Amino acid sequence: MKGFIDSKWAWGLLLAASLAFPWLAGNDYHLTVMSTAYIFAIATLGLNLITGYTGQLNLAHAGFMAVGAYTVGILTVDHGWTFWASLLMSGVICVVLGYFIGLVSLRLKGHYFSIFTLCVGYIMFLVIEKWDGLTHGTVGIMGIPEPEAIGGLTFDTPLRLYYLVLFILVVLVWVMRRIVKSLLGRTFIAIRNSDELAEALGINLMRNKMLAFMLSVFYAGISGGLYAGFVRFIGPDMAGVHHTFDMMIFAMVGGLGTVLGPLLGAIGMPWLTQSLQFLQEYRFIVFGPILVALVIFLPYGIVGSFLAWRARRDAKEGKPHAQD
Fold first, then answer.
1. pLDDT tens digit string along 129-149?
2. What are phi and psi of 37, to 5 degrees?
3. What's the pTM?
4. CA-based, 20 to 30 A from 135: which of 39, 142, 199, 303?
5. In 3-state terms, what secondary structure has residue 317?
6. CA–CA separation, 185 vs 182, rounded Å?
7. Where, by residue number, does the polypeptide cross the bilayer (predicted)?
8. CA atoms of 167 and 176, how far apart (whole Å)
């Protein structure tokens, strides 16, 4: 079992389970829930990069996800673009917007950065809600077209949309793992651990924070664009800060500063809430204590706490350990 949780075997089993899920789901509703969880997992991975690896809590993350969704909605519905071109632009526009917001916000540290991005996220929500000529205001954008066929492969059923979302998630997880295991990822971790020490080692703080921020919002934009094509309707509520807090819960439960943790959190937590639906309005009375217990007994999340335990064990045995 040593190192299994972050081995190729573990990732292979997770992929195999994802591929087999439609044949175990039983109905299209479960496929829709899982596909939505995959989409939010992409955004959560982006939030984890800037928060878990770089140490900057961006509370405007849902706003960037909404920008990506509205980019797809506006370009496809109002201007006749294809879904795939619009999806690419959703990431590009979020990166450009993130660059200018990052120039100002990343000069702040700690709580000041979080408060600033909270304000930015609320401004995004207001712009989306009030700019009727561009965003359709409170009505939202309806009739977003489904992804166009690629060759002979169409995406007109929940099953095919599920595999499309899964494919994009797998690609972006692979890219994220490459990033965090590279020298760039080590640089982000150094900045998270200590700004002063990282700067003393010759790391350009602003440049690397900007890069982490833009990569993070790129993931948010792509997930938002994918969400628009999947649901085919979007409204201003998508930019609400509560979605950012949901993604923070996903990352914290799974384990901030890992790739597998936020992924498992984003997939598992929606199913936990679904399983408590029979309690109706009382389900949060059960859900709340579960979260509190996880924070108390697993302060680094499920994957993070396991990795911390393994690191302590290996330290006692004098063995090296690898971090996911």
1. 999 989 998 888 998 988 998
2. -60, -40
3. 0.90
4. 39
5. helix
6. 5
7. 9-25, 31-50, 57-77, 83-104, 111-128, 161-180, 211-235, 247-272, 284-309
8. 14
